[in-house]
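Much of our argument rests on the idea that a fold can be written as discrete symbols. Part of our work consisted of pairing the sequence of a single chain with a tokenised description of its backbone. The amino acid sequence and the backbone structure tokens for this protein are reproduced below.
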Amino acid sequence: MPLDILYKKRYFVPSFKQLVKPLTHILPNTPRLNSRGNRPLQMDFEDQLNALIFFHLEEHTSARHLIQVLHEDDFARNNIAPENGISRSSFSEAINERGLEQFLYVFQQLQKQACSFLPKQYSELGDLVAIDGSLIDSVLSMSWADYRKKSKKARIHLGFNVNQSIPQKLFLTNGKADERPFVHQILKPGQTGIMDRGYQHHKNFDDLQDEQKHFVCRIKGNTLKTCLEQYDVEPNSIVFYDAKVLLGQSGAKQTQKPLRLVGYLIDDTKYWVATDRFDLSAEDIALIYKLRWEIEKFFGWWKRHLRVYHLIARSKHGLMVQILSGLITYLLLAIYCHEQHGEQVSIKRVRELRIKIQNETRELESVPPDPDDLNSQNSKPLHASP
């Protein structure tokens, strides 16, 4: 099905059309978004999706800012906004109460598509997934985002595909939620989770091995170590320790299954990393832990450019919609930047894309519309009720 008929707009500027092209094969199978009453939807799912992709792409500062742009900007009014416009109250209702199932479906399908398209790095080290959490500042009215007295925060639990530098799986909880249980839900058998010291949990290390899920996890330096077998280390290597061990005090919280412990030194800092990967060199284990920095870089991008700290929703439902739409935008940008430039996402390429959209909008506005384009506006939208 051509992308053009998935949307009810008068035209698409070429660059924006190229950006959203990966949605062509996803939207026809997206669950239908239905009105809950007799009134027709003021924003169908495509309208919601377009508006939130646009919100993240252009880095708007608030829902009020976005609504104003949807009314006044030529590109947004003709390509993004619903045909009859949208009020702030209707937009808020749509984001906070509808579309979560659809956004989750689009994210999952787009993530699979990106995995099949983007090149893989470090494939010799296995399927690497960095796991970490990040707090999102909330407002006091968000009662579900429990954190501390007079402080509300939500927490995102994210699995990040290190081999292709894209988000893989996520969960949203209140800020007090323990991060460690989500490791089991994020990882698939055969994948290697990369984690910092906050994820050290000896029973989890045993359980992950039972589930055939691998891990490379930094541990506290004062953790009790029972050496079962010590391995040679290369001279002049950063690695000073490599052994099969049990962690923890015997009879208490000691690991039941042996694991490998690698110690290495960088800039006068000692790192102790526990893993079940005996198939790699100790230097490879050190490299894998270093790659955990990729998720930190992504969180930095996310906080600066995906507008997670400009809340346009207060409900848990709405915040999850906002987060998913930001990750969908990032996946679209990852595919676009690789296809158009052979590069990973960068703010330079995003700014370049914004300028191209503005320039192409001016060009299209200066040309009389094609009668065929106007007629196609009356074609039946993908998710319209029968």
